[in-house]
């Protein structure tokens, strides 16, 4: 790196600090290139840091070592059925080839420890070629101590995505929390975790046991620092530097001063997408998505910076995908200071004794669908321009086992009730009245559902038959997903249609090069992660369908630019 006055020079500039950006940066460093990563926020990690941290990489060799056979024909059969007419792109072929290579690189050369989700099925397990487990990976929990003095810059978990600020592993630990008080082993495990977290707070001011996406980012950041990479936080990139039609760097504002950062090999856009760019979001999403109408898990700084930078250089955003967003039902949890935080309904609604209804009191889908498919069904039923959403409803028997949204069965719910987040009532009709639902319609919906649910059946939507639904449900119940709602009191939480990222994004080549409308790549400019248009064309085949492609194409981009000077290739 060479820096004089307000100028700096590196081989590679990465804009954004999620998993895709880190993947590009670490791979480039391993190729012997100098790398600067810039992040507009005060903390690094992006949305990855608050995610489950899964990556969907079919054909990965870690699953093979676990005895799970996953041949290329099955993978392609599944994706052909999943993607339909959009199957067969060069982008998809690159993903299938490079995904397993990326995993090998991070395991063998970087030291990231992935675990195989052996019990997690693909999201559409009834499709030919689907897998009952092994295509999704997640990182092992790690100690925050690996970051040393850099720990304060790691983005902490929002309170709503944790328990008192403590992250809960989306693997076995989550199951222990659901069985707290009903299993001696689980109760001991939960108490142990809470005690350790309490001691960490006293000693360090934050938890030291990192899990999920927080653990993944910590491991990637440690690798970046160990390999000599630079990471500037509170440093937004405001414009690209062009030289003779080639992207040669960017203007980065650091400590209030603009610095011209030249990137000899290329600039990688990894700024997290446009979920908080209300104007772009409203123009692209097909349901009401103005402020307050649609919620997002993504970090507030994901305001479409990458898209605007790409467009300024001649790139464009591909809006022709099946779904513009990676959908997620999200409830809005009030905070004492008047703000709110997001709670993700990624697994809650698939538990027995729960149903989801529209404002008219009617069910609209199998509640044990994947979160993406659930919201896709939800937004296909617009209600006269009103924000897309649904009530998740349960009875006391279900609540006492699983809670409802952010409301936990072993904690007082008085504040959540007072804030309006949690609605409670002694009867279904009273619950409907409080929620402004037609009481007769909701009473009929519940009574009709209960008739078959007593036998573990759901003839209306077939809930309880899917392997993925069972994975989400309670395997100790007669039917993992179906039970009647009969025991008072009854509870309801409003869920908005939300997202955890974008599938509409910057159009790229199979090497992650940003391309113009005519398909010609823009020299020196790459896009990965939520900035990049979905390799799955807006479909969501399995757990980790955002971070898996993000890390894969970060790896691909860095490998490509290390061999070239970001040279042009036609599509």
TrEMBL record:
Domain FAD-dependent oxidoreductase 2 FAD-binding: 11-545
Cofactor: FAD
Example GO BP: steroid metabolic process
InterPro entries assigned to the protein according to its UniProt record, in alphabetical order: FAD-dep_OxRdtase_2_FAD-bd, FAD-oxidoreductase_2, FAD/NAD-bd_sf, Succ_DH/fumarate_Rdtase_cat_sf
GO MF terms, alphabetically ordered: oxidoreductase activity
Pfam families named among the record's database cross-references: FAD_binding_2
Identification of the protein by name: FAD-dependent oxidoreductase 2 FAD-binding domain-containing protein
Chain coiled-coil ranges: none
Keyword line: FAD, Flavoprotein, Oxidoreductase
């Amino acid at each position: 790196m060479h820096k004089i006055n307000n100028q700096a020079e590196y081989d590679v500039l990465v804009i954004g600090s999620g998993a895709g950006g880190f993947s590009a940066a670490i791979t480039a460093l391993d190729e012997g290139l100098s790398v600067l990563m810039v992040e507009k926020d005060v903390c690094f990690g992006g949305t990855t840091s608050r995610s489950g941290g899964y990556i969907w990489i079919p054909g990965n060799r870690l699953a093979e070592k676990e005895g799970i056979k996953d041949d290329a024909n099955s993978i392609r059969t599944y994706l052909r059925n999943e993607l339909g007419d959009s199957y067969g792109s060069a982008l998809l072929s690159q993903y299938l080839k490079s995904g397993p290579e990326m995993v090998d690189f991070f395991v063998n050369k970087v030291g990231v420890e992935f675990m195989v989700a052996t019990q997690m099925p693909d999201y559409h397990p009834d499709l030919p070629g689907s897998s009952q487990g092994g295509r999704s990976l997640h990182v092992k929990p790690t100690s925050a101590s690996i970051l040393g003095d850099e720990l304060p810059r790691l983005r902490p978990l929002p309170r709503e995505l944790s328990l008192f600020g403590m992250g809960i592993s989306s693997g076995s630990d989550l199951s222990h929390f659901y069985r707290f008080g009903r299993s001696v082993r689980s109760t001991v495990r939960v108490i142990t975790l809470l005690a350790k977290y309490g001691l960490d707070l006293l000693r360090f001011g934050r938890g030291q046991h990192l899990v999920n996406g927080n653990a993944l980012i910590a491991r990637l950041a440690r690798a970046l620092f160990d390999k000599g990479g630079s990471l500037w936080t509170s440093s937004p990139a405001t414009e690209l530097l062009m030289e003779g039609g080639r992207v040669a760097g960017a203007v980065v504002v650091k400590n209030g001063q603009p610095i011209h950062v030249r990137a000899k090999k290329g600039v990688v856009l990894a700024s997290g997408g446009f979920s908080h760019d209300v104007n772009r979001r409203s123009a692209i999403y097909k349901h009401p998505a103005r402020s307050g109408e649609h919620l997002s898990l993504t970090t507030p700084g994901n305001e479409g910076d990458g898209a605007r930078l790409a467009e300024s250089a001649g790139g464009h955003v591909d809006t022709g995908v099946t779904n513009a967003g990676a959908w997620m039902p999200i409830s809005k949890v009030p905070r004492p200071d008047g703000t709110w935080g997001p709670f993700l309904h990624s697994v809650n609604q698939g538990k027995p004794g729960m149903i989801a209804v529209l404002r008219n009191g009617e069910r609209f889908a199998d509640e044990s669908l994947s979160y993406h498919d659930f919201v896709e069904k939800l937004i296909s039923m617009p209600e006269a321009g009103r924000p897309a959403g649904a009530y998740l409803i349960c009875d006391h028997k279900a609540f006492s086992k699983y809670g409802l949204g952010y409301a936990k069965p072993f904690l007082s719910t008085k504040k959540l009730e007072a804030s309006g987040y949690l609605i409670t009532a002694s009867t279904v009709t009273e619950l409907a009245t409080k929620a402004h639902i037609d009481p007769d319609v909701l009473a009929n919906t519940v009574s009709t559902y209960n008739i078959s649910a007593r036998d573990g059946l759901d003839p209306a939507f077939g809930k309880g038959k899917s392997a993925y639904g069972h994975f989400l449900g309670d395997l100790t119940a007669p039917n993992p997903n179906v039970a009647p709602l009969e025991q008072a009191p009854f509870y309801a939480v409003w869920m908005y249609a939300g997202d955890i990222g974008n599938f509409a994004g910057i159009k790229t080549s199979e090497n992650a090069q940003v391309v113009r409308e005519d398909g010609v790549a823009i020299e020196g400019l790459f896009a990965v992660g939520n900035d990049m248009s979905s390799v799955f064309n807006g479909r969501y085949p399995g757990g980790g369908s955002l971070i898996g492609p993000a890390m894969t194409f970060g790896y691909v981009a860095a490998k490509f630019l290390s061999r070239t000077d970001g040279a042009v290739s036609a599509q």
